[in-house]
Amino acid sequence: MAVLNIIKEGDATLRKTSRPVEEITPRITRLLDDMVETMHVADGCGLAAVQVGVLRRIVVIECEIGEIYEMINPEIIKKSGHQEEAEGCLSLPGKAGITSRPAKVTVKYTDRKGDEYELTGTGLLARAICHECDHLDGKLFTDKGVFLREMEDED
Ligand code: ZN
């Protein structure tokens, strides 16, 4: 496994739309391994492939330690409710803002073995699913016009 470089705000790649994965090749499974490793090292709870410069519809999420979701071609199929919480992004280090997100979302995705799943998440998991899926369409949480502050522990 390898730790990949996370691209930052200002890099035009972050604004591009990612393409669906048509075939799960060894290159895709290696990318998943590397994305999980990179997310751990960066101490984040989610990472989209576009953030490591790969324009494929792939995200990894780990809101609770040890509970890792690897999602290929994720698609949000149900949303309900509303929540406003603080959010950040590994591509926007030092920034945080309050975003409005659904309280509950259901996402459909394929895992690395090619099996299809549906996952319903609330709270932080719902926010993470929305945040990472937004990345696949070139969107950042700051697009929502949220209040931003510089975090105190910024390097
Ligand atoms: Zn992000």
What is the fourth-level CATH superfamily?
Peptide deformylase
Helix/strand order, N-terminal first:
HEEEEEEEHE
Instruction: Using the CA coordinates, give the radius of gyration.
Output: 15 Å
Q: Assembly state here?
A: single chain
Question: What is the domain total for the residues?
Answer: 1
Q: What does the overall shape look like?
A: globular
Strand residue content: 25-35%
Outline the biggest β-sheet: 5 strands, antiparallel
The CATH architecture can be given as: Alpha-Beta Complex
Biggest β-sheet: strands ordered side by side in the sheet: 1-2-3-6-7
Low-confidence stretches: none
Tell me briefly what this model is:
Helix content is 20%, strand content 34%. It has 155 residues and is of the alpha+beta class.
Secondary-structure blueprint:
Elements: H1 26-42, E1 46-48, E2 58-64, E3 67-80, E4 83-87, E5 95-101, E6 104-110, E7 116-122, H2 123-136, E8 148-150
Antiparallel strand pairs: 1-2, 2-3, 3-6, 4-5, 5-8, 6-7
Bound molecules: zinc ion.
Descriptors:
155 residues; alpha+beta; Peptide Deformylase; five-stranded antiparallel beta sheet; three-stranded antiparallel beta sheet; 2 helices; 8 strands; 20% helix; globular; binds zinc ion
Structure description:
The chain is an alpha+beta fold and 155 residues long. It has a single domain (12-150), classed as Peptide deformylase (Peptide Deformylase, Alpha-Beta Complex). Helix content is 20%, strand content 34%. The chain contains 2 helices and 8 strands; from the N terminus they run H-E-E-E-E-E-E-E-H-E. The protein has helices spanning 26-42, 123-136, and strands at 46-48, 58-64, 67-80, 83-87, 95-101, 104-110, 116-122, 148-150. The strands form 2 sheets. The protein has a 5-stranded antiparallel β-sheet. The longest helix is centred in the N-terminal third of the chain and has 17 residues, at 26-42. It is globular and about 40 Å long. The chain starts with 25 loop residues before the first helix and ends in a 5-residue tail after the last strand. The model has no long low-confidence stretch (mean pLDDT 94). The site of zinc ion has 5 residues, from helix 2.
